[in-house]
Amino acid sequence: MTDGSVVLENGRLPQDADAPRAVGGGTPYHEALTCLVEAEVRHCLLRDRLEDVDRCRDLDLLIHPADGRVTVAALARAGFLPRRDRRLRGKCVFLRYVHGRFYTLDVHAGFFQNGIEYMDARRALARAERAGAGARLAPEDEFLHLLLHNLLGKKELQEKHVPRLRALHAAGLDPERLGEQARISGLRPEIDLASASFETLLADGAAWHRMQRRVRRHLVRRPGNAIGAWRHAHGDRLRLRRRAVVLALLGPDGSGKTSFADALEAQLRDTPLRAGRVYMGCWGHDHLPMRQARRLVPPQVSHARMLLRRCGVPLGLTEEERAYLVGGRGSIVRLGFAALRYAVKNPLFHLALAAEMTFRYGRGIARSRRPLVITDRYVYDLEFRQGKIPFAHGAWHRRLWYRFFPAPDGILYLTTPYDLVEQRKPQLDRQQFETMDRVFRRVLRPYQPLEIVSDAPPDDMVHAFLTAHWERLLERCNRRA
Question: Would you list the DSSP string of 257-309?
Answer without folding.
Answer: HHHHHHHHHHHHTTSTT-EEEEE--SSS--SS--HHHHTTPPPSS-HHHHHHH
